């Protein structure tokens, strides 16, 4: 059992929790909590760390695999957990490849995110994308780290199922999508039509912008259409995660009836 805070594995987990640079260098990240641990593909798990008082719960799950399992003391779990109240289990996880991936349809539904900064927003968007069956999520350079612990938590396991491209030059990639015949729809305050007036049955990529500044002019210029979500009050805009959900499910609604 690991009981020393100076243990090398303890120090590595703390670095993975706190340093984006170290996560990128090592190709690993941390996932916490019983539900999230069960979502991880077996081949991505490096090691599972369980608070010794929680071992009975682990045994009852009857999960087998050839990864390492380490018991840790209460003090160590508190030191390596990113949660205010730890569930007593976390894992170090190998990142999967985020190289360009093909989608298996000729009318894909894609979300492209430009410079999203809030981990909770990114995690929620990924969770929505997973639930809606989105084919691909594309993250720009400058978007919050996909493997930030708060992002991982907010995805509720969606990160392990989605096709995701990260650190992309969005303008270059969106131009490629246009060349493939995919329509580019910008969520924009200058939209000339409401979101439900667009047609998203064909291959569609929604462009969603930064929480404070929206989409850049350069990226917006590539859109074939601007749409807006109508406001019934003086509110200027919706939270980007909420707005993304509305657009994605309007596309799903249209596709379900066509």
Name its key features:
21% strand, seven-stranded parallel sheet, 258 residues, Alpha/beta knot, 2 domains, elongated, 35% helix, 60s Ribosomal Protein L30, Chain: A, single chain, 10 helices, alpha/beta
Task: Kindly describe this structure.
With 258 residues, this protein is of the alpha/beta class. The protein folds into two domains: 8-94, 60s Ribosomal Protein L30, Chain: A (2-Layer Sandwich); 109-256, 3-Layer(aba) Sandwich (Alpha/beta knot). 35% of the residues lie in helices and 21% in strands.
Tally of separate helices: 10
CATH architecture of the largest domain: 3-Layer(aba) Sandwich
From the helix content, strand content and strand pairing, which structural class follows? alpha/beta
Shape: elongated
Q: What's the CATH first level of the largest domain?
A: Alpha Beta
**Strand numbers in spatial order across the main sheet:** 7-6-5-10-8-11-9
| Rg result | 20 Å
Poorly predicted residue ranges: none
Share in helix: 25-40%
* SSE series: HHEHEHEHEEHEHEHEEEHEH
First-to-last CA distance:
58 Å
Topology (SSEs and partners):
Blueprint: H1 8-18, H2 20-26, E1 28-32, H3 34-39, E2 45-51, H4 55-61, E3 68-72, H5 74-80, E4 89-94, E5 109-113, H6 119-132, E6 136-140, H7 149-155, E7 164-168, H8 170-179, E8 183-187, E9 193-194, E10 204-208, H9 217-220, E11 225-228, H10 240-256
Parallel strand pairs: 2-3, 5-6, 5-10, 6-7, 8-10, 8-11, 9-11
Antiparallel strand pairs: 1-4, 2-4
């Amino acid at each position: 059992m690991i009981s020393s805070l100076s243990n090398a594995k303890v120090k590595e987990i703390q670095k993975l929790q706190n340093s984006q640079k170290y996560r990128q260098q090592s190709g690993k990240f941390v996932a916490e909590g019983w539900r999230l641990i069960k979502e991880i593909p077996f081949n991505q798990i490096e090691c599972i760390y369980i608070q010794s008082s929680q071992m009975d719960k682990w045994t009852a799950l009857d999960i087998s695999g050839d990864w390492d399992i380490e018991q840790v003391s209460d003090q160590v779990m508190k030191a390596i957990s990113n949660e205010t109240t730890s569930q007593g289990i976390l894992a170090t996880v190998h990142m999967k490849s985020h190289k360009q991936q093909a989608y298996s349809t000729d009318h894909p539904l894609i979300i492209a995110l430009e410079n999203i900064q809030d981990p909770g927003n990114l995690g929620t968007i990924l969770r929505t994308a997973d639930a809606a069956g989105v084919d691909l999520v594309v993250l720009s350079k400058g978007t919050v780290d996909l493997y930030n612990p708060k992002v991982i938590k907010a995805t509720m396991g969606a990160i392990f199922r989605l096709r995701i491209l990260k650190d992309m030059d969005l303008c270059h990639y969106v131009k490629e999508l246009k060349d493939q015949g995919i329509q580019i729809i910008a969520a924009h305050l200058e939209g000339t039509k409401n979101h439900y007036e667009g047609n998203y049955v064909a291959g569609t990529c929604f462009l969603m912008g930064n929480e404070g500044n929206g989409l850049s002019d350069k990226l917006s210029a590539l859109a074939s259409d601007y749409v807006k979500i109508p406001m019934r009050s003086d509110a200027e805009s919706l939270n980007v995660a909420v707005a993304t959900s509305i657009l994605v499910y309007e596309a799903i609604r249209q596709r379900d009836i066509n």
